[in-house]
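This section describes the prediction task in plain terms. A model, or a person checking by hand, is given the sequence of a single protein chain and must write out its three-dimensional structure as a string of tokens. No templates, partner chains or ligands are provided. The sample shown here is typical of the held-out split.
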Amino acid sequence: MPDTLSPDSLAPAILSGDRRALARGITLVESTRPDHRERAEALLAALLPHTGKGVRLGITGVPGVGKSTFIEAFGLHVIGQGHKVAVLAVDPSSQRTGGSILGDKTRMEELSRHPSAFIRPSPAGSTLGGVARRTREAMLLVEAAGYDLVIVETVGVGQSETAVADMVDLFLLLLPPAGGDELQGIKKGIVELADMIVVNKADGALAAAARHAVAEYRHALSMLRPADPAWRVPVLSCSALEGQGVGAVWDRIGDYRRTLGGTGALDRRRAAQARTWMWNEIRENLLSSFTNDPGVRAALPSLERAAAAGKVTPGMAARQLLGLFRGERTV
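The expected answer:
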């Protein structure tokens, strides 16, 4: 029986655009099995020279903003311009099973059926910020498969926005037609992360409210220092439901890439993201090694109870466990 997870067979198949091979490759990089991890590293090494040429776009938005409708309308527009679109949608996970409880393919039916689109929902699991640990590696795989726009959709809660902003070229914040008190409810930190703001649902009875919201958001941004002096964060409006304004969003993304690409800022951003990625991997692997250490596992329950009961300080308990991990058998 052929080995369907062999890097030697997966790599050329992915490079040829084989969707089944791409799906198997992403399953491989998401696996936590040690033997799969080795194969995933070999696969990534083979594909790495063929990555990095696409547009990496992060999209977040408050619940009810129409994020899936926007991504579908936007993706179809970009495909119409001759591109291939991949959507890596990180779903909220069941706390009991760890599986995805939402399916973006059911919310983007037309896009999911298009031969130039690839949609991959992934369970967020326990990773900080709700971003699947291997989303970055999945992004490299879809780029190698020829998808030149990669959209990473956040779950829109916690610190997922920060995590996604650290892996994309441009971070887009999708907002509803709101203003005044509702504007105050938008976290300043999320707004500061945004490279572009789009007010959705600018249609029908909400059209006037959308125009007002655009003006208010532009005024709010004028009081913030831009992350890059060469780029003033634009505020656009669109109706994903009616397909109006999504083309202007794609045009401004092109402006962004030309502007930051011309100054070298985009290359510097990706280099900084690679360093962040490396340190995240170090921290996660160290934590995994620490919690799986036999000495630590044996001593952890009693030290946890002692810290909870106030018999030792949490710092003292942590130092004793770290000593065990380093081979200093002092407990």
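For orientation: The mean pLDDT is 86.
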